Amino acid sequence: MPDRLHSDVLRSDDSYGLLPEFVGQVHGALEAGDTEQLLELVEPLHYADIADLIENLDREDRALFVRATKSVFNAEVLPELDDAVREEVIEELGFEDFAACLREVESDDAVYLVGQIEDDEERAEVLGKLPAEMRAVIEQALALPEYCAGRLMQRELVAVPSYWTVGETIDYLRSGARLPDEFYQIFIVDPRHRPVGNVRLSALLRSRRPVRLNQIMDPKTTEITITMDQEEVAFLFRQQDLLSAPVVDASGRLVGRITVDDVVDVIDEEAEDDMFRLAGLSERDLFSAVVDTVKARSTWLVLNLGTAILASLVIGVFESTLQAVVALAVLMPIVASMGGNAGTQTLTIAVRALATKELTPANAMRIVGKETVVGLINGLVFAVLTGAVSYVWFGNIAIGLVIGAAMVINMLAAALAGIAIPLALDRLKVDPAVSSGVFLTTVTDVVGFFAFLGLAAVFIL
Amino acid sequence: MPDRLHSDVLRSDDSYGLLPEFVGQVHGALEAGDTEQLLELVEPLHYADIADLIENLDREDRALFVRATKSVFNAEVLPELDDAVREEVIEELGFEDFAACLREVESDDAVYLVGQIEDDEERAEVLGKLPAEMRAVIEQALALPEYCAGRLMQRELVAVPSYWTVGETIDYLRSGARLPDEFYQIFIVDPRHRPVGNVRLSALLRSRRPVRLNQIMDPKTTEITITMDQEEVAFLFRQQDLLSAPVVDASGRLVGRITVDDVVDVIDEEAEDDMFRLAGLSERDLFSAVVDTVKARSTWLVLNLGTAILASLVIGVFESTLQAVVALAVLMPIVASMGGNAGTQTLTIAVRALATKELTPANAMRIVGKETVVGLINGLVFAVLTGAVSYVWFGNIAIGLVIGAAMVINMLAAALAGIAIPLALDRLKVDPAVSSGVFLTTVTDVVGFFAFLGLAAVFIL
């Protein structure tokens, strides 16, 4: 544990984070090859700060850093690193030292770290360097689907029978039995090792020695099945303000526990994932190599190119109209752009509300109704604004009326698409954050250009 | 505590949430005025599930629900509700019952709930109904800036001196002294009530009675100042996997504690806020009235209209070019749209990385360099694709070359703007999520149209 957080290393008081000057000092020590100074600089840092520090260094410095600190490398740094950076660090550590790190971290972190190795051969090589029992635990967990409760859980936990007294329990905890480093709850199990309740540590500490656990336990509440999706796990923790929860296998036996610190990471990642997917990003790529970044981002851009060409085809239908009234070409992006933005607002609200389970089959129709009314009102407001601007600009009342009408139509289409697309994808069990943006802009571009140029072709020419 | 979570009320096993049929049953009971059946239905629910249930009902049913359950209304439901829904519920409860609720919840929740009342007179009326001591605590907290640690903290905590033994501490906890319902840590304070360390409950339980606390305590680690922004608090909790942390006032005295369950909500909200701001939403408005929703969303749409008109002005400069080659009007949205999308990808990565403190002054230049290269490569790739499509479509090599060149220019501009705008806003202490989207689309629209039509005017005409 660090003993000087508010030191010169980290910004103090109202902001927390590594100071650029500190990163500069580390860089200096690495350049100079001064390992002693380096270790002195790093020593007071929390492992999560060391992870941040490594991310802040450039590729070359990272390798130097790992080489210099290898002998004292804190294994807990690894789970905190960005994926791309971690790969670099592990490569530099080598399989031998990486396996040593795995033995130091908690079982859920070990599962996560091994799970991140994509190459099967490399994975087998690392597993081969681990003790048989640990290897079995990791392999078992990795056989479960990704992003499920079984991947998040720790196997170490405290479970005792309900007929024990507070005194017996405290004596057991003091006995030095094989216990996890930290625990927040004591799970109460029946003779078949199925959870029947839990005792909060504060309740245990408050009760006198002769009290039986079944008098102070919360009766069995929230059980997590080993295959439950991590998003559901996070929802449960948030919903019920849990600190830790028992994980059971298919037969209902207690096999592990999930703690809130892991769930905090999941909550953060799930929100981040939705945010990224809405922007057409498949993964966090801040520290990824250029080639990987280009590859990851191009999928969405290719899709978007398709949408853009489709919109151009619609425009192409009205070539002669554009030729006749060039003002239409000047104004047409306004209608499409406003529809796209209004639709994105609705879409974002809907995607988020589906993720937080606030938008449900029970209230979906009401929300669709509301968004339609909002779209209509917005459409009318911006029809008047845009119509007036266009009339003043080109001195042509017909153009003003046509752009106004097109605006109402496109804003309405945007609202409907913004709410209907994520609802439909969700019902089809597709993640509404991933693909709804493409569908939405397709709708708002096509409807926007078609309505504006189509109305113009009919009423102006 | 609910004793049948996996009942017919909630979806079981792999998904968790209210079943539409259950909401239907509640609606039925409300329609029929069958309070007995209603209470029976609601009784097994967790308070957070009751909040979800209320959100799922329509306005009329909500009022009926509150009226019917008033006498047994669970105060803990209130903090879980969406802001707009909570206002309805409080209005239905009336000040008297609302004040009664406030007395039941924890002090941080009471502060939050009173803080949500925007009308000064109403707030004073509610405060007037509270006991003097509680009123003082709430008023003191509300005098602090919004979104700061002092608003999140609970005043109830366990603090003891370091010379106490484990036995003395346990006896104190068992004595029935005024203690919080639940606590995760014991804070160790010096004679001037300044925190000097903390003891985890698991460590306390594991140690024998004669052991002194200063032998098992973690020396003073993370202190939170009362004015620290909640975003910083959340970062610290996440970074250091904290369960609870001491809050100190300006003179360093321990005045409260923040617990992880409140921080989980903050983490979720901060990520949601960034996601919403990027989409031009000022607040979560799923359950807001139509009028409020229209108002809240129109700010961004008006700004966007400005941007769109600016883009149109750029197009207007090239009216004669468009008149001469109408194919340009057909193709021009492609360049702008691709730039906007590529820029949004970069922007989203940058905004998120600033929020998670992974993008810092120490590595900013390296990331800018990387994004520039990514933008350039993407530009070249899509220049070839778009150029080829345009050439085939219009059979004009010059158009293909011009659109390709414009694509490279705009993708490069998009990358630079996508990373530079949030960095600049962050340095100016403006939230980069709020306003960067407008700036970005302004850049990509203006550069996109100007480059494409400008090059065409020079090389094709």
Shape of chain A: globular
Query: What is the CA-CA span between the terminal residues of chain A?
Result: 77 Å
Our estimate of the beta-strand percent of chain A is 5-15%
The CATH fourth-level homologous superfamily of the largest domain in chain A: SLC41 divalent cation transporters, integral membrane domain
CATH fold annotation of the largest domain in chain A: Tetracycline Repressor, domain 2
Organism (chains A, B): Roseospira navarrensis
Membrane topology (chains A, B): Multi-pass membrane protein
Protein name (chains A, B): Magnesium transporter MgtE
Subcellular location (chains A, B): Cell membrane; Membrane
Offer a quick outline of the entry:
Two copies of one chain form a homodimer. Chain A is 65% helix and 6% strand. With 461 residues, chain A is an alpha/beta fold.
Topology, pairings included?
Two copies of one chain form a homodimer.
Chain A lengths: L19 H13 L2 H8 L4 H10 L2 H11 L13 H22 L2 H9 L4 H9 L3 H11 L6 H4 L6 E3 L4 H9 L10 E5 L5 E6 H6 L6 H4 L1 E2 L4 E2 L4 H11 L3 E5 L5 E6 H19 L11 H28 L1 H6 L2 H29 L8 H31 L2 H31 L4 H28 L2
Parallel strand pairs in A: 1-2, 5-6
Antiparallel strand pairs in A: 2-3, 3-4, 6-7
Helix pairs in contact in A: 1-2, 4-5, 5-7, 6-8, 13-14, 14-20, 15-20, 17-18, 17-19, 17-20, 18-19, 19-20
Keywords (chains A, B): CBS domain, Cell membrane, Magnesium, Membrane, Metal-binding, Transmembrane, Transmembrane helix, Transport
GO molecular function, one term (chains A, B): magnesium ion transmembrane transporter activity
Pfam families (chains A, B): CBS, MgtE, MgtE_N
